[in-house]
Amino acid sequence: MPAAGYRPNLRRRIINDWQIYVLLLPAVIYFFVYTYLPMYGLQIVFKDYKFVKGILGSEWVGFKHFEDFFNAYYFWRLIKNTFLLNFLNLIIAFPIPIVMAILLNQFEHKGYKKFTQTAIYIPHFISTTVMVGILYLFLSPENGIINYFIEKLGGKAVHFMILSQWFRPLYIATEIWQHAGWNTILFIAALAGVSPEIYEAATIDGATKRQKIWHIDIAHIMPIAIMLLILNSGRLMFSNVDKTLLMQTSGNISTSDILGLYVYKVGLAGSPPQPSYAAAIGLFTNVINFVMILSVNFVSKKLSDTSLF
Amino acid sequence: MSMKIAPNQSIRIKKTKADRIFDIVNMIIWVIILFIILYPLWLIIIASVSDPDAVVQGEVLIYPVDFSVMGYEAVFEHKELWNSYLNSIIYTVGGTALSLIVTMCAAYALTRNFAGKKIFNFIFVFTMFFNGGLIPTFLLMRDLGLYNTRFLMVAINCVSVWNLMVARTYLKINLPNELYEAAVLDGSSHFRFFLSIVLPLSGTIIAVLTVYYGVERWNDYFTALVYIRDRAKLPLQTILREVLATLQTSTSTDAFFSAYATDTAGMTEAIRKAQVAKYCCIVISTAPAVVLYIFMQNYFVKGVMIGSLKG
Lengths: 309, 311
Fold this sequence. Notes:
The complex is a heterodimer. Chain A is an all-alpha fold.
């Protein structure tokens, strides 16, 4: 009977290691309260939640909120906007840090390299509020510097922040400006791992810098890049609420409205707020993201043994 | 012999020529990249110390015009702004300290072998992939009486699973099991081992976590937007949102900065100052994070590398 022998052993192990559990306790409490307890409140997606009645007292309405959402005219718009924003951002922004890391790796002067690295990481530390604030300042039709130059060159001032066709380009451009430099770190680390002998051998064989980049650097970076690309594609339906909320104006709403932002607007900022309906949209989004991450993780495990968990 | 050297030399010259062209092109590319990254930052700094009229007329492009600190004066005189600055310091320092303690304790525990380790690991990692969502979390915080409290601003987002895994990986690599076994032989408990051996050896990872958690909190505006109602409790970034990142920037900013004006002349002057005060706000709000980064940059890069070793 292994079970009988196992029990006292397990109990003794737990008692022996009680200090371990004490050390874990604060983190467990935090996650219990902040992540697991709210899952109990998810039942409101099947109810008509009223603030005065509370979670338990509100009436059951079944799948009404989901049906309303799937039939709403903005349903496909939200899906499309969320996906397109992430997808375009991924394919446009993704290669840039790789190219930057390869070019930076060619610096022979240590001081210049260090300075450049320090400089390109800085925008990563600017807050979203300030980033979007800079957009409003620089792109202002009255006294923004961009429109100043457009008008100097004979053009007409462009109302960038209220034109829907400008939302995605501006979103992606600022993502690149803020994070492309920071995202070079991983690739620079990968390139630092290439043994110098390989470069020396290539030099002796008469390879130019361009050939060395093509045959050595890119070959070394490829596996990491593909992994990252696969893992990032698990986040194609995520919402950057912080940034889209700041960039959204009444003019660009047709492109800037995304799932997570809509949840916030309907559930908390709306008048009157519709918590049940918003929570239902939130749950729908969470489930999509969960499934996407699981599938992406499955794919990456199959391909290369690398996975998130 | 000389016949052999000649072609070799010619190849070598050709080679360096191609490489030299590459270097020049590379340099030009980097000058452009650095310009794109640094010029907007420079523009903000010089605008913040220029005369408002010069800024509005687009004269401030390369260096400050009619040097003045009136924007900073307007910012320093604004009580609500300073109050929010103080709030941000409280939330950032308190929150980061709490995060560090909770994260380091849990990270150490996860490096040991104990019954149920897999379960705890799962409890933590699962939160990266699924949670109740914004609305149920908000309702719970409100039911717990944490809505509109400073306690919530300090305690929320206390542990990031990503940071926890980075810390765990660091401890695993830097604290060989033999060290623990030796300590146990000496009769050391987990607590004593953690306090007197693990923590003193964790300077690097504590620095990494401090900057990660600290910058994250300093830059957060959304939490307060959702959970704080009293303006007196708002952090800097949430106030900045009103001043900087709304479409009606000019009018709302004017109203914001002329709030303390007593007469029409004072009002006009305040509105004039507001033109540069916006740039000053950017400088004083961003400086702490950027300065912290520049001092700690070596640690920072290390943190990303540890994270990439697999969480």
